[in-house]
Design goal:
single chain, alpha+beta, six-stranded antiparallel beta sheet, 3 helices, about 20% helix
């Protein structure tokens, strides 16, 4: 890949990742775009268990480009009502989180041309050693999982926030169960 093309890819990935990380502290899924923002592109659908809250955004252009080039959409599922915008780092939600709380954001993006590579099978399985505390801009008692992969033509970004520095096995089991119930359309 030429240096200029590689830099465009890095910049685009960084912007999508920032938008994903900004999402209400949950899991992000980015989906790669076909030809238009509405061409069958939908957010991840969560089928949450009891005591989970779901928010779903609408499809929009990726930061800094036209929707025909890249479109994205975010969904959040959490054990506490989300208090932040879907594309914001979840400072307000994190401030209200109890140690047992979980927030998962999944952002899908569809981009032309497609650059993302498959890093893991969907759904991801979050393990304790993948969830460090002290994520940039969040308190040290909060831990965060981040993952990015490709599912078909879609880039999928997952961002999970746990209310303690070291999530319990129960928290990991609950988060993984929600991810197994999440459906990527298309």
């Amino acid at each position: 890949m030429a240096v200029a093309a590689r830099m465009q890819f890095i910049n685009r990935t960084y912007l999508i990742g920032l938008a994903t990380l900004a999402f209400a502290g949950g899991v992000f899924v980015a989906v790669q775009h076909t030809h238009s923002a509405s061409a069958g592109f939908e957010p991840v659908r969560f089928e949450p268990a009891a005591d989970w809250h779901v928010r779903t955004g609408s499809v929009h252009a990726c930061p800094g480009v036209k929707a025909t080039r890249c479109s994205q959409v975010s969904s959040v599922v959490s054990t506490i009502p989300s208090r932040d915008c879907l594309t914001c780092l979840p400072h307000k939600t994190v401030a209200a989180m109890a140690p047992g709380d979980i927030l998962i954001q999944v952002q899908l993006a569809v981009e032309h041309p497609t650059y993302a590579r498959r890093a893991f099978a969907w759904p991801p399985r979050i393990r304790r050693n993948q969830v460090p505390a002290g994520f940039e801009g969040l308190p040290n008692h909060i831990s965060v999982y981040q993952g990015q992969t490709r599912v078909g033509p879609r880039q999928v970004f997952v961002f999970a926030v746990f209310g303690r520095a070291l999530p319990t096995q129960r928290q990991l089991d609950r988060a993984n169960a929600e991810l197994r119930r999440a459906h990527i359309p298309g």
